[in-house]
Write a structure and sequence with these properties.
Number of helices: 3
Distance between the termini: 43 Å
Strand content: 25-35%
Radius of gyration: 15 Å
Length: about 140
């Protein structure tokens, strides 16, 4: 039997300054994802009252919400802080890349993906047979 692919290694885990901690499961909601990343930020000494934390939690919330709403749910979740940046990866079951859209009174929304693009330094979308993984880097300094 082959070992799991590298992408499978992110399922249900979060890194905190190089050490891995198993989560009880993948976050099922955007609030749970924010809570996990908020704890990571606090562990790194970043105040949750800061603009930096607000940006990081907004990116987390938008990626998690998009995975839940448009991607069939969160299938991978990984976050770590290295080189003064938050590295966040969230996977879902949809192979479709996010696309900006214009909201309307009947279908509000469409602001999340442009916010993610604006707040992050780097975005990588990897499509694989089980869906896609979006990895972002957000500068914390």
């Amino acid at each position: 039997m082959n070992p799991p692919a590298a992408a499978d290694d992110t399922r249900g885990s979060i890194s905190r300054r190089g050490s891995r901690h198993a989560l009880p499961g993948l976050p099922a909601t955007a609030a749970a994802a924010r809570e996990t990343i908020g704890a990571l930020l606090q562990h790194a000494g970043i105040s949750l009252d800061s603009v930096t934390a607000a940006d990081a939690l907004l990116v987390t919330s938008e990626l998690a919400t998009n995975a839940i709403r448009h991607g069939g749910g969160i299938t991978a979740f990984h976050g770590d802080i290295a080189d003064d940046a938050l590295h966040l990866t969230i996977g879902d079951t949809s192979p479709r890349a996010p696309a900006p859209r214009t909201g309307s009174p009947d279908h509000p929304g469409g602001y999340g993906w442009p916010l993610i693009q604006r707040l992050t330094e780097h975005i990588n979308i990897t499509v694989h047979p089980g869906g896609k993984t979006i990895s972002t880097t957000l500068r914390l300094t």
